[in-house]
Amino acid sequence: MGRMQGRSKLRLVGCGALLAVFLASAWVGWFAAHRVAATPAPEWDANDRLNELVASRQPEGANAWPIYERIIRDALEVDEVDWWIGNDLHSELRALLMQRPLLGAWSDPVWTKQRASFEALRPVLEMLNDLDGAPGCARPYLPPPEAMGGLAPGVMTLFPELGNIRRVAILNVVGLRAAAAEEDWDEVVLRFRVGRAMARHLTHQATLIEWMVSGSMAAMLFDELGHILLERQVPASVCERLLDAFDDHPWPGLPMMEMLSGERIFMEDFVQWIYSPGENGILVQWALLSIEMEWPELFNSDTGGVAAPGMSYRLTGLNPALFVEPRRGEVMRIIDEMFTEVESRAAPDALERTIDDSLFTRAISRSRLIERLLSSTDRAFNNVRSAMTTQKGLEIMLRLELHRARTGAWPESLEQAMAPAQTLDPVTGQPIEFERVEDDEHGRPYILRAPDEYTHLVRLPHWPELNTVREPIPDAMREAWEAEQEGGDNDL
């Protein structure tokens, strides 16, 4: 009897072990099917949706894109694949911008080579003039060639010419500086109008990166004209023409919240290339590898550009750290929540205006992928907002110049020189702060500052001052130039 009971127990244990093996095998099969064999299946083309969005936001008038295309493709002969390669003029442009000659005096010997490069680039500078008459810009978004390794078509840089547009925008600012040094005021006005038009054009495109570059271009332009106003006696008639440019080329060209419209589409596009289909789609780890997202702390291997590696390779590339990533539908809900919150905080009447890393803490804690997708959102908004405030400071400086031309003296308050509404910061709705000074170390007659209520993060060393003086040429740069000159003399 005891032996029979013992055998029964053994059978039960054996059956339990077989059941456990079966369940484990089933789980391994399920795991393989879902985590290893899973493949993204993109369902739509983001480029079409982005192009429709861009077309819907264009103002009446000429499209600036063909002008940019002529400059980049014809004048600079930039390679369509390698955007760093062009003709001799393109090499001169890169040489000019290597050290960006906006420091110290334009006539300083340190900038001898840069002045020569600038003169060689005058034909390109003149081509920019046509941009002044083009209010909008619609550069069609195109999917990259399928031959580009493992890059998923939806997630590479959508606007490959963006870097070269920024370079010619810097050339235009250098042209503004050179014109002021010669007191060629017609050229100063033209360069300022062209610079405003270029910054405005990018805000008619659809994604966050274009707005970020637009903010950078605008801030550089505004800073340079502000330096010129502090350094030179700009005629009142020129100040009036410069103020007219604010109305003719308003920047940004669209409300700031519009920068997220295309970015939402871009995010959806990105997700469809790295998740399996459906609301409950899972993150496909090898797809992240194939689009060259560099997360060495999360991946065990590198595809080397393989678009769809085999099963054994996919197994070696797995990392448990990504198994807890939320499903596709949840990721999109998190992104939508964050964008909605950013939009609400960017509204002029928002009670809470701070847009910084803390805004994304909750979302990032739920997804490592979200951390990568949203990492630049706060920076884009804050760069544009600080440039908008800098622009208001520049406008006030021009009105102060007009007041001095009329009265022969600086005002004791902004209200003496302009209407109260003209003193208001567009970001906070509060007046720009004005301090009349007599013994400023930089020789300024007054100091303008952003309002105290400015709540968001600004990554500028001089903030909150708005009328900053030009920085001198660093000693290290001058010493390097002197050493180069001595080396050249020794060669002779």
> Roughly what fraction of the amino acids lie in strands?
under 5%
The rough form would be described as: elongated
Determine the mean pLDDT: 82
List segments where confidence is low: pLDDT < 50 over at least 5 consecutive residues: 146-157, 294-306
Distance between the termini: 112 Å
Helix content: 40-55%
Give a short account of the largest sheet.
2 strands, antiparallel
Provide the spatial order of strands within the biggest beta sheet. 1-2
- Helix-strand string: HHHHHHHHHHHHHHHHHEEH
Q: Measured on Cα atoms, how large is the radius of gyration?
A: 29 Å
Number of strands: 2
Q: Structural class from helices and strands?
A: mainly alpha
Number of helices: 18
Q: Estimate nothing, just give the exact number of structural domains.
A: 2
Structure commentary:
The protein starts with a helix and ends with a helix. It has helices at 2-36, 46-56, 65-75, 88-97, 112-120, 122-127, 162-181, 185-202, 208-231, 236-248, 259-274, 285-290, 311-316, 328-346, 361-366, 368-373, 377-407, 475-491; strands at residues 433-436, 446-449. It folds into 2 domains: 32-46 and 261-379, no CATH class; 48-254 and 387-411, no CATH class. A two-stranded antiparallel ribbon has the order 1-2. It has 492 residues and is mostly helical. 36% of the residues are buried. It is built from 18 helices and 2 strands. Helix 4 (88-97) runs antiparallel to helix 5 (112-120).
